[in-house]
Amino acid sequence: MQGDDGPHPEWDQLYAAGVPATRIAELAGAKVPTVKRHLERRRALDPELAAKHNAAPRKPGRQWHRRLLELRDFITTHARYPAIHGQETGETSLYGWLRAQRHALVTQTLGWERARELGELLGDWVTTDLEREQDTQWRQRLADVIAFVAGQGRLPRHRPVTTQAESSLSIWLQTQNNHAHHMRLAQWRLEALEEAVPGWRKPRHRQQNTGIDTP
């Protein structure tokens, strides 16, 4: 742990985000006077630090909390997040509010308290509707591969010529393999493939004794 008089860039970052000295001390396990002295010195050296602190979003107000609770109730009732073209009462308005929170997070104008409360009440609120749809489609393709392997006893392939459905699954697996090779495959997807389709990345010559053929 750094000494009391040493640099504490993490304290500076929290302060610039609007976090008060008392809360920084609590998070860092430091004494409040120590944090305050540090910030006084930093403000003297960098006046912009104080400007950032003052410009940071303040504590969420009643209206913000009301919208958050409305969004939570919507998700609980409909088992989904609001959609941009949703038909439920107030759905498009809630979608716009949630999109604004996501934008504020990306631009670092949301504020730590808002981000904390959103996470506590909504869970994964950062994932966009498009990303959720893509994840759903990906899981369906994985389910199709699992069903094929269970029925055929081998991985799907497209050479020699096969059915269009099997060829499509083979190409999908090759795409996942390429993404994994270039470190572009999400970790949860890689783990799901490894668990559900053992040997999906092994070369053909290593599958001769497994009963599973690779594309």
Order of helices and strands: HHHHHHHHHH
Structural class: mainly alpha
List the total number of helices: 10
Q: pLDDT average, as an integer?
A: 84
The unreliable regions are: 204-215
Taking all Cα atoms into account, the compactness measure Rg is 25 Å
Rounded to the nearest angstrom, the distance between the terminal CA atoms is 53 Å
Number of strands: 0
Could you tell me the strand content as a percent range? under 5%
**How much helicity do the residues have?**
55-70%
Explained architecture:
- With 215 residues, the protein is mainly alpha-helical.
- It folds into 3 domains: 9-55, no CATH class; 62-122, no CATH class; 129-206, no CATH class.
- The chain has 10 helices and no strands.
- The chain has helices spanning 9-16, 21-28, 32-45, 47-55, 62-78, 91-106, 112-122, 129-152, 164-181, 187-196.
- Helix 2 (21-28) crosses helix 3 and helix 3 (32-45) crosses helix 4 (47-55).
- Residues 204-215 have low confidence and may be disordered.
Report a brief summary of the structure:
The protein has 10 helices and no strands. By secondary structure, it is mainly α.
How is the secondary structure organized here?
Elements: H1 9-16, H2 21-28, H3 32-45, H4 47-55, H5 62-78, H6 91-106, H7 112-122, H8 129-152, H9 164-181, H10 187-196
Helix pairs in contact: 2-3, 3-4, 5-6, 8-9
